[in-house]
Amino acid sequence: MSQEILKVENLCVKVLDKEILKGLDLVIGEGETHVIMGPNGAGKSTLGNTLMGKSEYEVTSGKITFLGEDLLEMKTDERARKGLFMSFQNPIEVPGVRLSEFIRNSCDALGNKMSLWNFKKAAAEQMKVLNMDPKYLDRELNVGFSGGEKKKAEILQLLMLKPRLAILDETDSGLDVDAVRTVSEGVKAYHEQVGGALLIITHSTRILESLKVDKVHVVADGHVVAEGDRSLVDEINESGFEKYIKA
Amino acid sequence: MAEKIMINSLVPPTWNRLKVNETYVELPGAFSSAIEENLTEADAGKWKIETGCGKELSDYLENAGVKPVLANVRSGILNMIKPVYKEDSADIICIDIPENETVNILTDLTSDESTKATAVFQILIKAGNNSVVNLTQVIRPGKGLKLINDIGSEISGKAQVNLVQIFTDGSDINAGYRAELSGDDSFAGCRIGLIRSNGETLDMNYVMKHFAPRSKSEISVSGALSTGAKKIFRGTIDFVKGCAGADGTENESVLILDDTVINKTVPLILCTEENVAGSHGASIGKPAEDMLYYMMSRGIDKEKALRILERAALESAVSHIEDQTALEYVMNIINENEDNE
Questions:
Q1: Domain coverage including residue A206
Q2: What is the CA radius of gyration of chain A?
Q3: Which residues of chain A are within 8 Å of residue B291 when distances are taken between CB atoms?
Q4: B302 interaction partners in chain A (CB closer than 8 Å)
Q5: What's the structural domain count of chain A?
Q6: Which ipTM was obtained for this model?
Q7: pLDDT tens-digit readout, B280-339
Q8: Cα–Cα distance between B238 and B124 in angstroms, integer?
Q9: A175, A196, B66, B282: which has the fewest C-beta neighbours closer than 10 Å?
Q10: Chain A residues contacting B, CB < 8 Å?
């Protein structure tokens, strides 16, 4: 395994007094691609949001170390500045704030200040990968975007912000085949350009088709119930999650 | 001698306990002019136009000897009006736009921090048939200036008056605007962007009075309030009998950035004509936690995220500025303010 960047140990998380994660363990190495699969309600998105530091997710026990530091001591913005990114399952609309302004402010916050010219040039290059019209940069962030456009805008941010670890929370959900292919190309480009690690949360497998997967974790009832290589994805495609739910 | 007068009165009044029926301001007994340019005196008898702040203010100015003057405005350029505030002052600027003309006007109401005074700035507009008046106002008085910014307009057939107002931090402001849509197919647009903080008050009274058939008005207010700011917005759309086919809308979207602010919104639609369309909507509240979480997940800290949302509120109004030079002027001011923070 390459150098460890994320270590989750015995993580227990409550949301509104309901325990969702019940002792989850996970280790991700630099540049690796990990997949979290599992049935609805297994706790996959809870894991993503807990890693990112959403306030209503209460960590009751366990430890998360990211790049050698205690992630639980950091606020959400500090986590992002440390190199963590999450592509949202339902990206939030922010009226009045243009996509370009948002990404540029984010780049600034991450210490990558760019002139407007350089920013537009960099954004245009990445938008080509995603078949996005550069005019999207002038649109209000996610306002009136279709599901596919929102997900492309998330991947554009991934490509521009170049995090050390990107969590993709159901990035392929609700997308048609062509949109999944485009988003998948964007994720591949991130991996090639940045060499960052990926934690892909999904209950489908279409987004994985063009990616090299290092490890698959099956989560059910709040903890990891099975782990394996890419062949586990094929097995789940064939048999579903039933045996893990029973387990 | 200083006197207390009533401005921004609501028609009709509502419950007294809400304390929004009117506002009282103390005005000095004498005023100088803050306009350095020599302008021709207007015929006061021809410029009896009702304003948003109301008749009591206009009468007071008249009794105090404040004379209306004609602004030198012309088409094809950005006409700039920038008063220089040093002492108590009042100016009544009359803008007379002939048929088929389009004029762009920018007023920048600002003052040095050292100026301690009361200022009344009143604009009266007559928009001739098929004319277009694009009036942009940046309203940013320094801390010692108590400012009353008051507008009245008479809008003839197919004429448009497009008002954009940007209120940035500064001192207490009273603002009024009254549009009389007296010509068929006339239009009054009013886009307001505001930021208020540090205990500042903004007391507003905006009235769109529809006399003519198919006249149209739109008021939109977007802004952000924090640290003890107090804002009252009274927005009245008044459909008078005979204005069949008229359409009036008002929308307000205000972000409350902490628990110390007071925000009062009084939308009113008055109607004595059946065949009209009037609507109002308001979205007032704290930025959703999800929105802040999303912004913070990209490395933007909470304070910066709130500043971005404040700026977005202003830009929502700025986006309606037609004239490119005026737009750049306003954006420069917004950027300067941001740099100073």
A1: 4-43+52-246
A2: 18
A3: 92, 94
A4: 75, 77
A5: 1
A6: 0.95
A7: 988 877 777 889 999 999 999 999 999 999 899 898 899 999 999 999 999 999 988 877
A8: 20
A9: B282
A10: 52, 54-55, 75-77, 79-81, 85-86, 88, 91-92, 94-97, 101-103, 105-106, 109-110, 157, 161
The terminus-to-terminus CA distance of chain B in angstroms comes to 39
| Minimal Cβ distance to A97: which of B288, B293, B312 | B312
User: By three-state DSSP, how is residue A128 classified?
Assistant: helix
Q: Do A77 and B294 touch (CB under 8 A)?
A: no
Give CA separation, B328 vs A115, B321, B323, in Å.
Answer: 19, 10, 9
Selected for mutation to probe chain A from B194, B252, B289, B295 (highest A CB count within 10 Å) is B295
Say which CATH number the domain at A62 has: 3.40.50.300
| pTM beyond 0.90 | no
Which residues does residue B7 pair with via DSSP β-bridges, in sequence order? B23
* SS3 category, B209: strand
Name the closest residue on chain A to residue B317, using Cα atoms.
A96
Alpha helices (H) along chain A: 44-52, 76-82, 99-109, 116-129, 147-161, 177-194, 231-239, 242-246
Q: Do B197 and B167 touch, CB atoms closer than 8 A?
A: no
Query: Quick one: which of B207, B216, B206 has its CA closest to B238?
Result: B207
Averaged over B128-139, what is the pLDDT? Answer: 98
Q: What is the DSSP string of B126-164?
A: EE-TT-EEEEEEEEE--TTEEEEEEEEEEE-TT-EEEEE
Q: Give the ranges where chain B is alpha helix by DSSP (H).
A: 55-63, 289-296, 302-318, 324-340
Q: Best interface-test mutation with B: which of A71, A97, A107 has the largest number of B CBs within 10 A?
A: A97
- Asked if B297's CB is within 8 angstroms of A77's CB, the reply is yes
**Regarding beta strands B247-256 and B216-225, do their DSSP bridges make them parallel or antiparallel, or are they unpaired?**
parallel
